[in-house]
Automatic annotation (TrEMBL):
This is Alkaline phosphatase D family protein. Residues 1-34 form the signal peptide. It comes from the Bacteria. The keyword Signal applies. Keywords: Signal. Pfam families: PhoD, PhoD_N. PANTHER family: PHOD-LIKE PHOSPHATASE METALLOPHOSPHATASE DOMAIN-CONTAINING PROTEIN, PHOSPHATASE, PUTATIVE (AFU_ORTHOLOGUE AFUA_6G08710)-RELATED. Residues 49-139 form the Phospholipase D N-terminal domain. InterPro entries: Metallo-depent_PP-like, PhoD-like_MPP, PhoD-like_sf, PhoD_N, Phospholipid_Metab_Enz, TAT_signal. Residues 156-506 form the PhoD-like phosphatase metallophosphatase domain. It comes from [Kitasatospora] papulosa.
Amino acid sequence: MSDRSLIPAPGRRTVLRGSLLASAAIAVPAAVTAAPAFALSGRPSATWGVQVGDVTASSALVWVRSDRPARMVVETSATESFRRARTWHGPLVDARTDFTGTTPLYGLPAGEQVHYRVTLVDPHDPRRTGRPVHGTFRTAPATRRDGVRFLWSGDIAGQGWGINPDIGGYRVYEEMRRLDPDFFLCSGDNIYADGVLEPSVTLPDGRVWRNITTPEKSKVAETLDEYRGNFRYNLLDDHLRAFNAQVPSVVQWDDHEVRNNWYPGQILDDARYTEKDVDVLAARSMRAFREYFPVPTLLGAPQERRMHRVVRHGPLLDVFVLDMRTFRNANSPGRQSDDTTGILGAEQLSWLKRELSRSRATWKVIAADMPLGLVVPDGATDFEAVAQGDPGAPLGRELQIAELLRHIKHRRITGTVWLTADVHYTSAQHYAPGRAAFKDFAPFWEFVSGPLAAGGFPANALDGTFGPDRVFVRAPDRANVSPMEQPQFFGEVDIDGGSGELTVRLRAQGGTVLFTKVLQPGRTGQ
């Protein structure tokens, strides 16, 4: 196993002193509700912090948000002193992108710590610059000897539980930061656009939960500005901004980035919404999403933008980021015997099969924003995920998954592991054909972890089509348990550079490891 300390190395710790703590960890940015375009006095400011996305062995994407129009300038260096720094001239950020901007970095050294700082420059007077905001990240290794370690989870500010100053805000992000992972995989529900935050909520035991609130979180999001405000909300938390400045992200989306259980073509019957066309809402959310997260595949021409992608993290790991929301068919009872659209869409399924076949990585993590064998209802008769409660032969969306699993077996693709969040508890499921109605696949594991800052929910029922065995589960016994009443959950994946073993740890906030599973490389199923 990796022998890296759970406490950041001195180089990383030092960068969090001085400018990072002064700028990325301010308790609440100065203008929470004021429109940045009207805050024109002084120099450009980046109090919303910085973040880095989709780091590979040679590239990364740096993000920042300004409080007014500014030119983004990024400097990178191998040292914290920024001697021999390389300068990257980024875009002009203005109201068209809600004053956010991203700068791609290329030609970076593999397997090295990269220190960076972002400076915002007045576009009319280059002598007027803001205070630099610092961050750091590690590039993916070129060889396997260094190993890889990352965290995953999802579900942030959901079910009415937002940033509570009485408990220190999103403290789980500080715990994850101290583990010093190579990156963080957010498995969706980065926001709850349909989740209104009340100033206070009385808990069953009489204690009072208190939320930081903003105008955009006082109603369901419908307009572009309201979606932008939902993405901004989480950046009010100092722990999250400090985490972003140290830990790169790989993000995907799920339903609450738009609204609960949405699918393309849906027309809402919900009195809270004046805009009933979900496709309109989804387009607005996607625009805000690509403004607030550094995702390379969302930056091209409109017809080329997509959430699904492969993030290659050295010879040990490829992360296949799925989009189980954009291309799905309508939620239904899921009993159809022919379903080419399914939950991925035909084109994405073909892409995934092709990229899995091409991958030469030891481990192929399939980052799914929904679980496979857990029954997730949508109302009285419809289903939201893949499974629909019928333990027999594949039907509905299960047909696509059966096709994919068959492909993995017949192509002898080794090292596939499924990771997800979504259901607001943590568990480990082992899938095997000996227990399944559908038998033409190799055994595999699916691990669930979450939420990070949302309500906890009881465990979902299992669907026997693919033979899941729930080896471990930790879930509350009632719905919407607040983060004040139970710890939040996240997972850790550690790939050893020597043996190639992959270790999964399901963690609870507070430092507890709830469950550990070690998987061996080179197996077609285990």
